[in-house]
């Protein structure tokens, strides 16, 4: 698993989390963990938080 956190250079309230998983099964398992579910519930409680999740395939 690879994990990176980015902050927008012009808008400090915008973050991007980039994750690379070995398999869909590993990602599915992660999404059921208590720390992930806690993170999601805390994010949803923030009045200005939005999420845009995209699954992508590595090309080069």
TrEMBL record:
<keyword id="KW-0503">Monooxygenase</keyword>
<dbReference type="InterPro" id="IPR011008">
    <property type="entry name" value="Dimeric_a/b-barrel"/>
</dbReference>
<dbReference type="GO" id="GO:0004497">
    <property type="term" value="F:monooxygenase activity"/>
</dbReference>
<feature type="domain" description="ABM">
    <location>
        <begin position="2"/>
        <end position="40"/>
    </location>
</feature>
<dbReference type="InterPro" id="IPR007138">
    <property type="entry name" value="ABM_dom"/>
</dbReference>
<keyword id="KW-0560">Oxidoreductase</keyword>
<dbReference type="Pfam" id="PF03992">
    <property type="entry name" value="ABM"/>
</dbReference>
<protein>
    <submittedName>
        <fullName>Antibiotic biosynthesis monooxygenase</fullName>
    </submittedName>
</protein>
